């Protein structure tokens, strides 16, 4: 919504005053598998939901690309990484927990690894001239040059790739960009980065239920979310794909729910595991039919998710438990 809490609140106020349809692109709520998890919770399939454990594995190279060298590396230029990367995740927790309301938040984390103190001996300011580049997993050469690629993330480094352009031409452009631009810099102290690379958030809800959300840069897979939802009679596990595993305590059996889906008309979709399509489809149908109830991520719900992020960051910075009421 915005990078300051007062701006988020103002957006919601203006939308309400002028009866404007607004849907924030917390697109994961629109995924069939995410909706199925909510349905299972509401149908008491696992009894009373008492706790959620959620992990957002950013991926070692992805974090270096976006949050050390890239657009979201510095709070002054964008915002803190919990907001820019994980407002989706806090929104998921809020969605699954509804109608419960979060009351208190605490959080811990820091910029652990991508600092000048961790710069290897002999490393230079840029990967292409670095004597220890071959021993570095965050090498820009490995990420952008060693494997021919015209798509992401190379297309971010060189956005003017033409259709049909051969790899030799693209490689020349990429090499020049790495020699002069931000994506060729050493990740250890040369990128003016200050956002945290690992953080954990602890949330307490008004009925005593709890949740944890962990963001960590140092994972094998990129953008891999894992969720475990613990109920009094069972457990749900979601590994960021289209299936949900349900374990029933009474029968001690496992059931797999497969929510693999096609968009209407049988057209395969893409973008955030197809969530982008479902979000846009919902928004268009809501506007066309003048039905705001078709929006899963309207202004008030999205404001609440953002408040959780701002509260968690305040708790982390001030090393205390933050009451949600003080953020309202």
Features:
alpha+beta; 2 domains; 328 residues; Gfo/Idh/MocA_Oxidoreductases; 9 helices; Gfo/Idh/MocA-like oxidoreductase C-terminal domain-containing protein; Dihydrodipicolinate Reductase, domain 2; 18% strand; 9 strands; Gfo/Idh/MocA-like_OxRdtase_C
SSE order and pairing:
Blueprint: H1 5-17, H2 32-42, E1 49-57, H3 60-68, H4 81-97, E2 102-110, H5 140-144, H6 154-157, H7 167-180, E3 198-205, E4 210-216, E5 224-231, E6 234-238, E7 243-248, E8 253-258, H8 275-289, H9 299-318, E9 322-323
Parallel strand pairs: 1-4
Antiparallel strand pairs: 1-5, 2-3, 2-9, 3-4, 5-6, 6-7, 7-8
What would your notes on this structure say?
- This protein has nine helices and nine strands.
- The chain is of the alpha+beta class and 328 residues long.
- The chain folds into two domains: 242 residues, 2-Layer Sandwich (Dihydrodipicolinate Reductase, domain 2); 69 residues, no CATH class.
- Helix 1 runs antiparallel to helix 9 and helix 4 crosses helix 9.
- The longest helix has 20 residues.
- The model has no long low-confidence stretch (mean pLDDT 93).
- This is Gfo/Idh/MocA-like oxidoreductase C-terminal domain-containing protein.
Mean pLDDT: 93
Secondary-structure-derived class: alpha+beta
- The radius of gyration is 22 Å
Q: At CATH's second level, what is the architecture of the largest domain?
A: 2-Layer Sandwich
| Tally of contiguous helical segments | 9
What level of helicity do the residues show? 25-40%
Total strands: 9
Order of helices and strands: HHEHHEHHHEEEEEEHHE
Whole-number tally of structural domains: 2
Distance between the termini: 16 Å
Describe the main β-sheet briefly: 9 strands, mixed
Low-confidence segments, given as residue ranges, are none
* Spatial sequence of strands, sheet with the most strands: 8-7-6-5-1-4-3-2-9
């Amino acid at each position: 919504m915005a990078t300051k809490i007062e701006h988020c609140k103002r957006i919601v106020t203006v939308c309400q005053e002028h009866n404007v349809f607004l849907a924030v692109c917390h697109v994961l709520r629109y995924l069939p598998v995410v909706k199925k998890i909510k349905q299972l919770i509401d149908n008491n399939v696992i009894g009373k939901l008492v706790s959620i454990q959620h992990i957002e594995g950013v991926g070692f190279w992805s974090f270096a690309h976006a949050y050390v060298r890239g657009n979201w590396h510095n709070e002054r230029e964008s915002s803190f990484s919990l907001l820019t990367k994980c407002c989706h995740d806090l929104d998921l927790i809020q969605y699954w927990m509804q109608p419960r309301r979060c009351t208190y938040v605490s959080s811990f984390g820091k910029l652990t690894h991508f600092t000048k103190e961790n710069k290897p001996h002999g490393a230079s300011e840029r990967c292409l001239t670095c004597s220890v580049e071959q021993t570095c997993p965050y090498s820009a050469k490995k990420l952008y040059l060693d494997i021919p690629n015209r798509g992401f993330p190379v297309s971010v480094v060189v956005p003017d790739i033409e259709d049909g352009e051969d790899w030799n031409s693209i490689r020349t452009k990429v090499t020049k960009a790495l020699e002069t631009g931000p994506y060729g810099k050493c990740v250890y102290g040369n990128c003016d980065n200050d956002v945290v690379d690992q953080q954990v958030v602890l949330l307490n809800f008004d009925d005593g239920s709890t949740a944890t959300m962990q963001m960590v840069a140092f994972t094998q897979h990129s953008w891999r979310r894992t969720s475990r939802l613990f109920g009094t009679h069972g457990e749900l596990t979601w590994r960021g794909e289209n299936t949900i595993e349900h374990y029933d305590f009474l029968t001690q059996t496992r059931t797999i729910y497969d929510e693999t889906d096609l968009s209407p008309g049988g057209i395969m979709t893409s973008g955030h595991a197809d969530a982008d399509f479902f979000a846009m489809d919902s928004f268009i149908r809501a506007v066309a039919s003048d039905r705001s109830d078709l929006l899963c991520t309207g202004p008030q719900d999205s404001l609440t998710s953002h408040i959780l992020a701002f509260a968690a960051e305040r708790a982390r910075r001030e090393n205390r438990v933050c009451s949600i009421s003080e953020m309202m």
